[in-house]
User: Which sequence fits this backbone?
């Protein structure tokens, strides 16, 4: 036993130890939320449980867009021009694919392809996605613990609503990228959810977190697939009092992507009130933007405590203050 | 029926129609031999039956090095610096793989990766290697018909002979690339050969060829795997009188790669005489280099007709004259 340890437990801990935070995460919005949290919490106190429902197998590669968006963002290497993939990309492989008339609607930069090559090879060798994800995050010196919600196969499937395609079910990326989410949706299904078990550290990361943050990701296709994995929703329900959601909807619109449109098409109100209804079973608090201050009472009526603040993280100074609100929605503790 | 056709069969054919040529092919040496033949025969008269024993699955990709070397060479796009892969390559994907500590001993340029992405995706969709190979060759406007010897899985496996690795069996690319063929070999085996059937056009391409050319490839690991596919050796034996082999050994050494060393390690004489013994059952003629003129009688004693000429195709003017000799080893017909 070292001299320090003989002084008794906790003697060297700071007066206010940093809380442990677990983020329920999709892609872009979650990556920004985690980056904001890292302005006020040490990285080794942060865990992200990430969506894998938008993973795909293409060209023989296992591609995990949400995991990679989080990793690349936290590494400071996300491609600022595209919002996905890596900085400084070249596109030679896709040029070759195009020469052959191959599938080119899902853009893969050459640097990014290296990530998928590595992941695919490791999984072919028998490694679990959880381990490969940690290896990739470590290589980018991402300090947080990044956990795919499951090592099992989970795929978000979208059934189209209109025209010749009405009733046709396609994969999430076919909906999101190939059709640029510019089609009406009838329903969403998480293929494999009944057989998908949480990754080895997932449920403990919910149980043990001082604070759970539901990131401002798309509720229908980024957060819901995480909840669909066996036991995750129940664990989040049990931890509801420690959980804060951040609304991805501001003034009735999504900051990015089809969240508002999808909510409406799936029969939900595309507003912070609809978000409140969606998350009330698993979160005690909903952070909404100042633009929605007039809806705070309606949010409260859904059984979730509204907290109004600035939430648009692309605006200067907003990210860190949003992170502080998320960690202590009822104000700083004495 | 068109007017031309009413004139009777062959009326429009040239007096001496170009012979149909089928080349039994490995990689680099075969690609050069085919390019030489194309100086004297129209591309649509040429078929190559190519080795797939050195194919590999790596990073989830199906890689066919010999097929690609032939395609890229005939397209004029082979990388002159490496002798494999494409011109104008970048290496960003491999840089990423290296960041993760992934497998980097098998070099894959970004442009080249696009070929493997396309091939792998098409095969995942259920396409046969024969069809995918034709699609890739067409995209590069390679005029010949390029046939993988089989659509089934065939893998050249090498058993090492010395030191701690004695008795260990590794894949061909582990031998050839990872260990730079700088290890002693005890034996070679073609995994899957007993269940590998020739591709749909392979046996007919042997039966119907006016001239069969066994390219100056490595007999042990490039030509033998082609012969190991069910029925191919028997068809070549039956076509022996139409078949010419070109020696890959000149003055007791291989022009490239480990052919001489491998022949010796496998118990064969590493000379044109050893090549003669190897090919006598399937070829009536063996083209040997002027440097081996003194061995012509020993070649003849093996039951195969020697033809002496210049065979080193990297020397100016040699390729076309070698091609003419190969097509008419007994001199021009009257």
Assistant:
């Amino acid at each position: 036993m070292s001299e320090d340890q003989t002084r008794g437990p906790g003697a060297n801990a700071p007066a206010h130890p940093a809380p442990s935070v677990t983020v329920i995460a999709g892609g872009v919005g979650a990556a920004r939320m985690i980056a904001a949290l890292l302005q006020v919490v040490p990285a080794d106190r942060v865990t992200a449980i990430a969506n894998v429902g938008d993973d795909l197998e293409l060209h023989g590669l296992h591609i995990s867009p949400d995991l990679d968006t989080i990793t690349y963002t936290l590494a400071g290497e996300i491609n600022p021009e595209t919002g996905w993939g890596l900085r400084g990309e070249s596109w030679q492989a896709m040029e070759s694919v195009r020469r052959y008339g191959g599938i080119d609607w899902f853009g893969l930069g050459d640097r990014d392809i290296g990530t998928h090559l590595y992941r695919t090879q490791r999984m072919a060798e028998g490694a679990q996605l959880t381990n490969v994800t940690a290896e990739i995050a470590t290589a980018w010196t991402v300090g947080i613990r990044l956990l795919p919600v499951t090592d099992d196969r989970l795929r978000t499937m979208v059934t189209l609503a209109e025209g010749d395609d009405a009733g046709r079910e396609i994969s999430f990326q076919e909906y999101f990228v190939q059709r640029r989410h510019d089609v009406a949706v009838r329903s969403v299904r998480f293929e494999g959810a009944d057989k998908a078990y949480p990754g080895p550290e997932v449920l403990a990361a919910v149980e043990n977190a001082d604070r759970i943050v539901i990131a401002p990701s798309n509720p229908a296709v980024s957060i819901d697939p995480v909840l669909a994995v066996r036991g995750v929703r129940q664990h989040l329900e049990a931890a509801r009092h420690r959980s804060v959601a951040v609304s991805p909807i501001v003034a009735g619109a999504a900051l990015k992507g089809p969240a508002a449109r999808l909510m409406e098409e799936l029969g939900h109100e595309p507003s912070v009130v609809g978000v409140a209804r969606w998350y009330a079973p698993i979160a005690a608090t909903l952070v909404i933007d100042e633009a929605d201050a007039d809806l705070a009472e309606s949010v409260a009526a859904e059984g979730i405590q509204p907290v109004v603040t600035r939430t648009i993280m692309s605006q200067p100074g907003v990210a860190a203050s949003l992170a502080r609100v998320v960690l202590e929605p009822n104000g700083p503790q004495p």
In short: Chain B is about 35% helix and 15% strand. Residues 110-124 of chain B form the longest helix (15 residues). Residues 21 and 144 of chain B are 10 Å apart (CA to CA). Chain B has one domain: 18-327.
